[in-house]
Write a structure and sequence with these properties.
The chain contains 15 helices and 22 strands. With about 600 residues, it is of the alpha+beta class. Strands 3, 9, 10, 11, 12, 13, 14, 17, 18, 19 and 20 form an 11-stranded mixed beta sheet that branches. It is globular and about 75 Å long.
């Protein structure tokens, strides 16, 4: 999106001138939701909801649960989005559109208070898939569920700065902010922050959350589909929802959705583009040359969409030594720092040694761009770190020499304050990520940093199981690589992931999103300024400062600005011209159909 267009869009949203995003299951547990899963199709206005047979979607990173509040993984958010919905969504163009809400509240229409201290949402007349009405009490409960620290909600930063959420009446929910909030559209917007049914989850709040397997695996929702069967880390089967508000328009077209997990990106791409065995393959991180060859079969295309998805290396600011026991990778009020990775110069040297363009060329092609920033999108895309775009091995070696990190014993590994610069570098199992790991390892060893590689099955790595030692939240390594993004064109909620209060730890079931355990009072104060600032240009300036602190303090090494990718059968219609990088790729699945 061009800068001018983004600014106009952003201004329209923020200044609101328009009228208008661990369970106890054990092995492969199956659950079925309430509701009439065997309901017949409904004839309406020349079309029938659920008439279109089935659609097969491959997500090689299989969902662990269907509750996005208990896992920050994209796979859980996407798989759940067929069932549970937010008040509003964000389109691929960054436009805010109503979902469960009747309209988008603005200052102009009276939905946002002139002092920017509240936003009032009016609900559509909607029912849950079990036939009971959706009310403002469900909105209030969704907030209370996520802000309870014992719940371990991974999306709690989206609800930061809220004093209260109240039910004005059965169809009206009011969000009261603790300070003027120029962008009030983070709570309850996008697939990251859906409305969950109070009646189903009211006994699952706080410490009970992780143990509510039936609710977490089979949420009752308002979306176009409802869960028939869910097998954790494997398969989800959905039936069309006969109580969906779009049935009168013949939506959804499909009567059944199968989301099959497992395999790898290459195999799922081939299933759609070469073997004609599936309709849609998510996240096809495959060699660009291979993808082009597969597309030449004429069975489908590779789609992409750019927003703020950045592949990065997270730098553990705490000590991950297993000998520390319960303190392993725990901040402990700053008393457990990493032996050397809290030194920004060491991390800067590691960043200088990386050839980002090569990483893009071998792994992403047109779906990737080198970046030095964790927030790459205009109008807040910093240029202050652009020297990372050119690999500089000599400069990296010189920098390490200058701080006294030298190889004193001639074994090829530098030491800093007596500690060898030896790191464990982990990521999820994925051919592209493993090739990137191999390249980075070679470059780091050129500057005297010994690197051990580890890859973990994606369903485990992103699964969020508090009992597993191998989740990205636990971070039992020195460095780890993955990608995530903002669910909103406004950076406030996303940049709030790195305030001190967002650190994962045993006290919050490792549910926070400050994965690297970054602690900087200046960052926290700047984020508070962002939360209170209404001027668009000043908000962009503050966002740049926040981005630069994260990068220059050495807590993150941004690598690649990634476009979301998917392989789509030519038979599938209604997706649009590009994928949705701001929200779930399934944001408009109710509009999808099959040609012929």
């Amino acid at each position: 999106m061009k800068r001018s267009r983004f600014l106009i869009l952003f201004a329209a949203l923020v200044l609101v001138a328009a009228a208008c995003g661990g369970d106890d299951s054990g092995d492969d547990t199956t659950t079925t939701t309430a509701g009439d899963t065997g309901a017949t199709t409904t004839t309406v206005d020349g079309g029938m909801a659920g008439q279109g047979g089935n659609i097969t979607i491959l997500m090689w990173q299989a969902a662990t649960a269907l509750n996005p509040y208990l896992s920050g993984g994209t796979k859980e958010i996407m798989a759940a989005s067929l069932v549970i919905e937010p008040l509003a969504e964000i389109t691929p163009d960054g436009e805010l559109v109503p979902k469960l809400a009747a309209d988008i509240p603005t200052v102009e229409n009276g939905g946002v208070s002139e002092d920017l201290l509240s936003i009032t949402w009016t609900l559509k007349d909607t029912v849950w898939s079990d036939g009971t009405p959706v009310t403002a009490d469900d909105v209030v409960f969704s907030y209370e569920y996520c802000i309870d620290e014992a719940t371990g909600c991974t999306q709690s930063s989206l609800y930061a700065g809220i004093d209260s959420v109240e039910a004005v009446d059965s169809q009206t929910a009011k969000v009261n902010f603790s300070s003027p909030t120029p962008y009030p559209y983070s709570p309850f917007v996008t697939g990251q922050a859906p409305i969950i049914q109070k009646a189903q989850f009211e006994n699952c709040i706080g410490a009970a959350a992780a143990g509510c397997t039936d609710a977490n695996f089979g949420p009752i929702g308002t979306g176009p589909f409802m869960v028939r069967e869910f097998r954790t880390n494997d398969t989800a089967v959905y039936d069309y929802n006969p109580n969906y508000r779009g049935n009168a328009e013949g939506q959804p077209f499909f009567g059944e959705v199968l989301i099959k997990g497992g395999g790898d990106a290459d195999a799922t791409a081939r299933s759609v583009l070469q073997l004609d065995e599936a309709d849609y393959a998510w996240n096809v991180q495959v060699d660009p040359v291979v993808l082009a060859d597969l597309e030449s079969n004429g069975l489908g295309t590779v789609m992409s969409g750019f927003a703020t998805l950045v592949e990065r290396i997270m730098i553990n600011q705490t000590n991950p030594d297993a000998d520390l026991g319960d303190l392993r990778s725990v901040y402990d009020d700053g008393n457990n720092p990493h032996p050397f990775l809290t030194n920004p110069d060491i991390v800067k040297a590691m960043s200088m040694a990386i050839d980002r363009q090569t990483l893009v060329d071998v792994g992403y092609g047109a779906a990737g761009r080198p970046t030095c920033n964790v927030w790459p999108a205009p109008p807040a895309d910093s240029t202050n770190n652009d020297d990372c775009l050119v690999q500089d091995i000599d400069g990296a070696n010189a920098l390490l020499d200058s701080i006294g990190a030298v190889d004193s014993d001639g074994d090829g590994v530098r030491e800093f304050n007596g500690t060898p610069l030896s790191v464990l570098y982990q990521t999820s199992t994925n051919a592209v990520r493993q090739s990137n790991q191999d390249l980075v390892k070679a470059w780091w060893e050129e500057i005297g940093i010994e690197t051990e590689l580890k890859n973990i099955d994606a369903s485990v790595f992103f699964g969020g199981d508090p009992a597993s030692p191998d989740t990205y939240q636990k971070f039992y390594a020195d460095l780890q690589m993955y990608a995530n993004n903002s669910g909103s064109p406004d950076p406030q909620g996303y940049m709030g992931n790195w305030i001190t209060a967002q650190m994962p730890g045993p006290e919050n079931n490792f549910g926070g999103q400050n994965i690297q355990r970054y602690a900087n009072p200046d960052y926290d104060a700047l984020w508070e300024q962002l939360a209170a600032e209404g001027d668009l240009n000043k908000r962009a300036e503050i966002t740049i400062q926040l981005n630069d602190l994260l990068v220059q303090d050495g807590s993150i090494i941004p690598l690649i600005w990634r476009g979301d990718t998917a392989a789509v059968s030519n038979e599938i219609q209604g997706i649009g011209d590009s994928l949705n990088g701001w929200d779930t790729q399934f944001w408009n699945i109710h509009e999808w159909s099959r040609a012929g």
